[in-house]
């Protein structure tokens, strides 16, 4: 497991987390909007085989074709299930996605950079102001936290956090529902447990040790 490679400080630690984001992004893409669980399993098996063989370019091309085939299909205010889609996104906690869905229309796109557009953009981004005195901290800060606080982090805490987490996808493209299924679904048996424990160990390491920033780029950047 790539996360365990990072946890153990292997020679590939500097790139260990990037394959995690890439694999999630290219491996979990549904073949089509109406595909069934069996289709998902078949597609994932084929993608994992390509991944193990190092055929990353084929995986990315396959994902690109899937995304391209869907562009524009659900845009516009005439979507027949607009209310249902909006309600589903809200109930899943994806508020930004729900609002974006409502605001999308078939006439969307990149605006021509006219003088009027530039004026409006400048109005939306005013000149920076000096910090107010009340928002500034002075003097030395005692930010040392005993390591014993972080010793409580374990796989079960990660699992419980997955239940409470809501929102859209991060760098990997997997939203809270996707991670909840991977981390807490009993169908995966020990695989979910091991993943929770690996994430817990990584969290404790991040909290208690100095980490080379280049090894965690995948946590903050879209690969």
TrEMBL record:
It comes from the Eukaryota. This is Uncharacterized protein. The lineage of its organism: Eukaryota, Metazoa, Cnidaria, Anthozoa, Octocorallia.
